[in-house]
């Protein structure tokens, strides 16, 4: 898979999705948690603290050969916020110009339950030892067709890395979803945005993130429309199901919320060109969580959200039930990727 293909997939390791840097060999100059910050790496020159120049990244001490003459290497373990199939990894050495690691590799493993870092086993190399340059992002496609829960970044021998991005496709455990009312539009359950009219300020994938948006930057916001028409986004649901309740959240959007919204559904298994109404065009208020019960909705695999004419949404929740076909599809995928 080329970089352009995987870069649009969600970052399974990013902190707002629940990712955590659970262990590292060393963090003498800059803390390991910076690796999964959601924002672009920043740098302020001549900002020195007790650890030296401050970096928005992870930086280890300079290694020296031990008594056996071995240099070794540094590493950091990241628990993915959402387990899934990894399609590509980005190792970004932004702002590290004289202290970047010359070589890096990445491993991954799958651990069920709530394993501690020292209990992780079965590591698989997904990015072989590869050269790095300073102050640049390095993209590495991954071809391993398996579900993973953790990754380990190895840097040889030491140095600084600003960000680690782990792009992929969420793979939820069907045992946690079968027979329950679930958010069919949640990214952590496997939903994804497949198309949109505009993402000038932020991607519509932000609407599918867990938790409440803290600022208007954590949802979806389009540019101001000066012509006709309206903005829209299409979401592939986690699996086929019936949507019972829709939540359209404009929290934090006080002066740029849409005036109205509508929802349409489609069952790709029955007719991929036939859209049916789920929620007729409905007026919205700024900075408010709107909840709408949907009566007699048919089985749905995709939902189109139309906002009029433009603006932003904090979150979109589509609560409902998986259909028998949806449950079966999730179980089959789970078996294929974990067996």
From TrEMBL:
Q: Supply the Gene3D superfamilies for this chain.
A: Galactose-binding domain-like
Record domain Allantoicase: where = 18-170, 190-321
Q: Which residues form the signal peptide?
A: none
The record, for SUPFAM superfamilies, names:
Galactose-binding domain-like
Give the superkingdom in one word.
Answer: Bacteria
The answer, when asked if Hydrolase is one of the entry's keywords, is yes
Its BP terms in the Gene Ontology are:
allantoin catabolic process; purine nucleobase metabolic process
Alphabetically sorted, this entry's keywords are:
Hydrolase, Purine metabolism
Q: Does the keyword Hydrolase apply?
A: yes
Pfam families on file: Allantoicase
| Biological pathway | Nitrogen metabolism; (S)-allantoin degradation; (S)-ureidoglycolate from allantoate (aminidohydrolase route): step 1/1
Q: Which PANTHER family match?
A: ALLANTOICASE, INACTIVE ALLANTOICASE-RELATED
Family named by the database record: Belongs to the allantoicase family.
Name of the protein? Probable allantoicase
Its source organism is Thermomonospora cellulosilytica
